[in-house]
Each structure stands twice: as C-alpha cells, then as structure tokens.
Predict the 3D structure of the following.
Amino acid sequence: MPRIRVEVDGTTYEDDVEPRLLLVHYLRERLGKVGTPVGCDTSNCGACTVLMDGMSVKSCSVLAVQADGSDVTTVEGLGVDGTTHPMQRAFHEEHALQCGYCTPGMIMASLDLLRENADPSEEEVREGLEGNLCRCTGYQNIVKAVRRAAAEMREPADQEVTP
Amino acid sequence: MSENGQHPDGQHPDGQAGNGHHGFGRVPRKEDARFIRGRGNYVDDIKLPGMLYGAILRSPHAHARLVSVDTTAAEAHPQVRAVITGETLTGLNLAWMPTLSNDVQAVLATDKVRYQGQEVAFVVAETHYAARDALELIDVDYEALPPVVDARKALDDDAPVIRDDVEGRTDNHIFDWEAGDAEHTDRVFGEAEVVVAQDVLYPRVHPAPLETCGIVADMDKVTGKLTVHTTTQAPHAHRTVYALVAGLPEHKIRVVSPDIGGGFGNKVGIYPGYVCAIVGSIVTGRPVKWIEDRSENLMTTSFARDYHMRGEIAATRDGRIRGLRVKVLADHGAFNGTAQPTKFPAGFFHVFTGSYDIEAAHCAVTGVYTNKAPGGVAYACSFRITEAAYLVERLVDVLAAELGADPAELRMRNLLRAEQFPYSTATGWEYDSGDYPRTLRTALDIAGYDELRAEQAGRRERGEGPLMGIGISFFTEAVGAGPRKHMDILGLGMADGAELRVHPTGKAVLRISVQTQGQGHETTFAQIVAHELGIPVDDVEVVHGDTDQTPFGLGTYGSRSTPVSGAATAVVARKVRERARIVAGAMLEASPEDLEWTPGRWAVRGDPSTGVTMQEIAMAAHGSLELPEGVEGHLDATTVYNPPNLTYPFGAYVAVVDVDPGTGKVTVRRFVAVDDCGVRINPMVVEGQVHGGLADGVGMALMQVMAFDEDGNHLGASFMDYLLPTAVECPSWELGETVTPSPHHPLGAKGVGESATVGSPAAIVNAVVDALRPYGVRHADMPLTPANVWRVVQGRPFRTDLAIP
C-alpha cells in the first residue's frame, strides 16, 4: 500500500492507503473530517469541494495518493482560534444555506473563485459556482453571500492603498 | 406587517434582528453555526464502535424471474460478515414490507425483479469498499420478462402482469378514484359555449436531495434495544412501522433523525435498505451503516409526479370559467408505495379547481403498475397539488389562447374574491382565506406586466429574436395535513404533539414531532415560543428528530410543520403562559384574573410597575413559593394539536423567458413570485424557501426528467443525465408578499415550503408556450429541453417520458 504524507487543515498526516481510495473517503473515513460530504457519484455536485494547494478540487474525483505532498484545506480548517472566516459569516448573514449539505463545498469553491477574482459580478459568481449544486437555496442568497464576503475580504487591501 | 409589500431585492425594510429578538421577524438561523463550520451531524458522519458497512446488489433488469442467487463467493470474501438475500428475509417474514398505500413492497426480491435497480441482495462487510467489492462476487441468474414501460399501455389486454405475487391478479390496475360531481359537471360541459381539452403530462422526476438516503442501524442484543439513525422526515412513524413490521416492542426502538441534507419528500417512506441494515445488525450483532449512492437514490427511491392528465375546461364565450373535467392515468411503478393519507389514493389532487370560482368539477384518477420504482408523492408536491396546480394553470392558458384573451385578465376575471372565503370548492375543500386579485395585481405590478406585453409585441412586430414569452401562474395550495378524522397515515392520525419546559432560570426547551431538513425549524419554532412567552429566541432550544426525546407526531412533509406543529407550539406556549399567570398571582399576592400580559411579563392591571418577568416566575415556580391548590409547580405543558382544517396559502407568479427557436434553448430572464402564506414567522426563512422552490420549477420545467427506454432501462440515473439547475440557469428571483392570515390557525400562519415548487413550473411552461405562439403551439410537455422545444417548433413533439424513438 502506498504511503502518503498530506497536510490537512494544518495537521500533517502520514498514512498507508489503497491506491483506489478517494480523497473524500480518506478525509471522512480515515481522518474523521466529516465536514466534507458526498452528494453524487459522477463528480457533478461539488459538495465534496476542498482546496488542494489553494485550488478547489472535487475530492470525490481525486485519489488520496494524488494528494501526497499536498496541503488540503476543508471547511473545518477555516477560521482561526474559533473565529469564523468572512465567507462563513457571509453565508450565515445572507441566509445562504438551509440544509447545510452543499455549504462546505460551496464555501470552499467560493474561496477559490475569489482567489481568481476578488470582485466578481453577480454573473461571474454564478458562472464560478456552476460546479456546485444546491437543492435548497435557489442560489440567490449564495450569490449575495459571496459578494458580501468578497467586499469584506477586499477591505484590508483597500485600506493599505488608502492614505 | 406589510400589505402589498414589495421587496424586489429580497430585503425587508425592518432589517435583521439579532437572536436576542423576542419573536417574529428576520432572525438569523441558529442552526447555521454548525453547518458553516462543517460541524453538522448527518447520517454518514456517524461512526459507532464496531460499525460495519452494507451495500446492495441491484437488478440490471426491469422485469425478470429470479432463478437463483449464489452468494458463496461473496461470503468467502475475508472482509464480509454477512450476505442477506430474499431467502434469508423470508425466514424472518421480512422479505416483503407494507407500503404507505396499503400495498406491499419487496425488501429483497424473492420471485421476480420488477424494476431496474431493485434490491436483490445485501452484503455486510468491514469497510464500505469491501462491501462494494463483494457485490461483484454474487452470481444471480435471471430469466428476462417483457417489461411494462409505457403507463398508457399498462392496462392493455396483452400487457405483462407485474404483480403476480398477488394470487388471482390478472392485470396492472391499482385503483380508480374520483372526486366532484360527475353528472353536474357533464351538464355544465353540455351547456358550455366553449370547451377546450388538452392532454398534459407531468413527467416522472425525482426530488434528489443532495444527501441521499441512509441509515446506521444498531441492535443492542443485551438491552434488546434497536437504535436507528436515519434520514427520515417522519421519525415517529418510522418507529411505529418498525415495531409493526419487525415485531419489536415500540419502547425498544429509538429512531434518531439527525441533521438531514434535504428531504423534499424523498425521505418520508421506509426503503428496503433500511430494513436490510436493521437485519444486518441483528444478524451480525454489530452496528451496520448503509448509505446509498446517487444512482441508487435516483433509480430506486421515491420518484415524483408521473401523471398523464387529460383536462377539459368549459367556459362562456366572454371568459367565465364554468367547469373542469379531468381524467388521470397515474404511473405508480411496480409497488404502490405512494406516501399519502390513507383515504386519498390520489393525494389532494382534487384541489385542481385551483383559485377560481367554478360551478362544477370532476376528476377520475386511475393508478397503474409499471416496471419502475415506486413513489409518486414527493418533491414538495403537497400530496399531488403540483400536478393539480400545473394542470389547471395550463388549462386556463389554453382557454385564454382559444378565446384570444389575455391570460392575466382571464385569471383576474375568474379568481375567487376576498369576500367569498371561507370558500367551499366543487370538489369539497373549504379554503380558509384569500384575497387573490390583490395578490395577482401585486405580481403584475412588480413585473411591469403591461410594459412586458408591449415589449413582446414590439419584438414580434420587428421580428427581433429571441422569442419572448410571459407566463402567469396563480395557485392555491392546501397544506397542513390534517384533521385526524379525515387524515391518517397507516392509521396514524395526523395530529402532532408539542412539549414545552421552562427551566428555573427562564430558559426553555421545546420538543416537537416534526423534523427539519433545512427549513429552519430550530430557529422559527424558537421564535414562536419567544413570541408567546416574551423570552429571547436564543433562550429556547428546539429538540426534534429523536423519538425517545420528543412527543409523537407525523413529521415534516406537505408543508405541514407550521400549520400543525407550529400551531401546537403556540398552544403549548400559551398553556405555559397561563400557568405562569397563576404563579405570578401567587408571587404578587393578586388574583390571576387581575393580571395583564405584556411580552415577557405578568403585571397587575392598572399598575404596570407591579409585575414579574417570565424568568422570575420560572424560578418561583421551581422554588419554595406556596402555590394555589391544584398547581403542581414547575413550568411546563404538553399538547396535541389536531388541526380543524388545512391552511390554503396562495401565490401569483410571473415568468419571463427568451426562447431561441433555432436551438430550442430557453432562458428564464425574470421570475416574479408573490406569495401569501398568512403571517410570516421569519420572512428571511420564507424567502429562502421560495427561492429554493422556484429553482425546482426551473429544473422541472426545463431539464429534469426520468425517462425509460423500451427495455425499462432508467435513463436519468445520475447527475450526468438527470439535470438539476445550477446558479447559471436560475435568475435573480423577484419576490413580493401579501398577508392574508389563516383564521383558524393560532398564529394566522400558513405553510409555504412547497408553494413555489407547486406554483412555478406552470408559469415557466406558460411563458415558453406564449413565446412559441407564432408557431401555433398550444401546449408542450415538460421538460422543455432544447431538443424538446426544437422538436415542438418543428411541429414534431416527442414523448418526454419515453426514450426518443
């Protein structure tokens, strides 16, 4: 069995894994990181989205062995010392979740979206989240939440250039 | 509260209230705290010591005789702990289980398989991967039989008999059911100046909650207690059914419904996988987890709709609707597992007279078996009201086209007026309250209807593409099942309990029988208590989903939580408030009759400075204060709420679409939704419910379908084929509201969760058909995919429920 070394939410793990083990199952079943759920079996829904070396991936479509040497961030790794990340807060404030099942993946995909585009338009948010299905919210409040978080996350940078 | 309130951007003028808030309003959700951190507790997150994993072997055939099942190789797999077959279950008298529609359903096939994906064997193994591996080692010998795929041929003389498990059965007929006055309706149709008929298919779709169905079954052989953690919308009903089916005493069964990743009616019934996992736990003595994957969910759990309807509408030449006549062929699949009140085999389909003052109406529904998975009632249908509302709203548009009338004006002319409520319909419903013209006017105003029509006319005149269509839907819902006398599920009356306990320090615990799947009960039910007792929302903990901890009740579906359990919560809180009044009287040495309530406080009438708060009362009720004779102390109450009637929320929707006739592509440009659900406990949550339901409407109208080929192969068995709307296909919803309280509900609140799913498909289809008017199109069946619309434009529509020939 191949041995992998992977950093997940700031902790380094070394494990022997079957080559066929999916990253999402490694996270959930081996590490107990059950905050990242599974919503489909054809890589359409995006509920399992995590960041791998900063880029969003659908962890149901990545083998755990492929994550060897990588830095993985799940929704459980956001926020510092019990605080929440601006994206998490924005989802709460804009009522951008109901059952909560797509929420972890939606939040992680949104972070990757903002990495590429710090000030997305409504249309750009919708396009950017096309890989994430939600059955509850009808998306509108998610779009609002992402734009709200984007504004908040831009603030420190804006302040730097403001005299 | 606003009347005709219009908040196009979804913002409410009163802003957000914090959770220190004492009642109704835009209170942010308490449950978010765990979900945004990945700290929810869904069934697949549960891990118990020694837990094993189950997997199901499924039939590749739609219809086949089961010749043999050889499990030898699977049993020899080093990680396999048990393999269960139909034969195993027969020994336990569990091979078949009762359905919610007085039929039986195979748990594991014994004689035949009757749909593709049907459960044939269950493997229990040390890991989830090993369980799947072992499925490959089971050798099943099938003898293929011809399947019944087309519901319209299910009753043909030469149709293969699907249910030959029933002695003496010679056909695929399930039931005939009718409502309304056939003779009166025929008379009205005989006299009518205008009669229009239209065949309308509401194709088979699936609720597809993002979390699939699953269970962790844990039979403790020492205590004899079975604990199941499962995705159920009705935990108490599940407990009772397990007791009846498995012969376990009900007090030794605990059903826990943890966080549920969406239900939408998919998680009401009991599925074979649950029974297999329980048997697996009994057989192995260890907990067994079974979680289905997406294709299993789509292929085998409760589908929705599949109604083949022929509707007729009778009217005067000047547009007064007089009668409706409907014949329905209902495809129920291989087992009649439809989840609905016992006396209503077609659910509440007979609210199909909709929002109109109609003299006579009649419907006849025939249910048939086909070689497909069971289900029917699911996906926010409110017991078949999706079908009813879609039919009548299509018929009104067909009539408008026939008369050359504007669909908005035709509706306005026929809508029930405020003074007609309570209104008895021609099929026997008593609508509680409504002011429909006001609501339609609000929607038309938000949409700028006249300008839209002018824009459309201009575009048509100039021949500017794409084609523009405007569609209206006005619906009346019937939710909150229901009065015990008329409504039961498997003999269990549809009343719901509530228990409220106020702790010595004034914090409260509310225990309810309903089970949220994302609708926000943990917040909104706390708001009801806060509203009634004047304590902060954060001081109320809502406990639900655990049958050991909560009072009996029928669960959450049919938008029944607010109408039934919401009412129970108000009633139980008022009981506590009255007890608090007696305690306050003893504290203040005043007669309780002389006390006056202001939120959170009982005070002496005329002397507001002499009073005590709920917190002070709570402490005194648990303290040494001498209480009047007959008052036991503490501060709690229980109740069971048996609703006197359903609630009838309603709404007016306007969709604007663009259709490219060259490709058939439909774009929903705008969608205006004005909902009236009476008093809104939490407007933010209501709006979220509406948003979600509108997305369902986009999905059903434009992309979702579960079609079958001639061999009975399921053609929508994954998210590759069964398409759900993404953020890209959904427009920014434009919402409005009117408020017409329910007179019989303690809070004036009506249900709303399913309204948008019920009301929105018709608006979109009406809009697309409106866009296609230059092509002489009168109707087109859902889903209006590009291929379908293109074929409709060519004058060659196809059957959306069957494979393209």
Notes: The CA atoms of residues 400 and 407 of chain B lie 6 Å apart. The two ends of chain B are 55 Å apart (CA to CA).
